[in-house]
Amino acid sequence: MNANPDTVDSGNELAALRVIRDDGTLDPAQDPGLSRDEVVSLYEAMLRTRLVDERLVSLQRQGRIGFHIGSLGEEATIVGSAFALRPQDFIFPAYREFGAALLRGFRLQSYLDNMFGNRRDPAKGRQMPDHYTSAKTRLASISSPIGTQIIHAVGYALAARIRGEDVVTLTYFGEGATSSNDFHNGMNFAGVLRAPTVLLCRNNGWAISVPPERQTASPTFAEKGRAYGVRYARCDGNDLLAVVRATRDAVAHAAAGKGPTLLECVTYRMAGHSTSDDPTIYREAVAVESWRQRDPIARVRGWLGAQGWWDDEKQERLEKSTDAEIKAAVEQAESAGPPPLESMFEDVYSQMPAHLAEQRAELLSGPRAPQGHR
Fold it and tell me: Among 9, 312, 336, 360, which is 20 to 30 Å from 298 by CA?
């Protein structure tokens, strides 16, 4: 029996929920019912995410920042799922979800300050680029190790429930993370304790460099939820409206006290794992015509155009304004200067112990002459 009410089995593979059909029309049974303004706003957020992505790759190639890990081709999965959350819900990201952070109110300037590691960086220059945090927008700090955010999301959801708070957590991870210890631990705890959380697997087809058939023998990644007693669902991750619908359903399921959902969003990473990769990987990825035709941004723009809600003039105006916004933020981030050295002693203890205060004072006063020498 299929454990997921929103999809049907197709042979040995769980069918992916879709809303935007190939002919550009919507499936009325699955349509999440977004307003014109909501869809236009989400399209603008997706395009802004891509333009920022492209600029950061360019900055890294110029040697102006050290690293970037992008989301080219995954914008619908990231922006659509973040939109489906409620204001009080928390995100525990992996490292491709800067689009979700920006959508929830994380300032572009703060994001770029992190990319340059300057004195205004929320992480105070202690993290590598794309490792930001924002308590104000309910976005947990990013950590590089694969899958660790899964157990954090489950634990926070359980703690919120103990406190009597109406909070659902959403955590992102790639399909490669389903082979990690933390995926097993997080799924097991979530299933046994019915944690109010959404475990969102961005199946972008790579798992860093391994195709899905080398990653798992399971027909789909979503069906891994069956072994843990976790509700599971699968959607077309390049279909913005399908992502919104599937995530909303998972959030409502969790908020009603019915437990977690493992949501697999089937998408495609149209670039290398990060800017540290050989750039030829990018050219090989975008050459896959079937995925280029399913570009999530182009699909939404096509549907908006068919409704008479978008045109070339609006597109040009948005691109120009976003380009100007990015340029201004880059200039400010690049000119801000590094964090002060003494900041390395902060945020470790609630009250700085004497030995650290002494070390900080010595740092600020400069080096002393060695004892016993003239």
Answer: 9
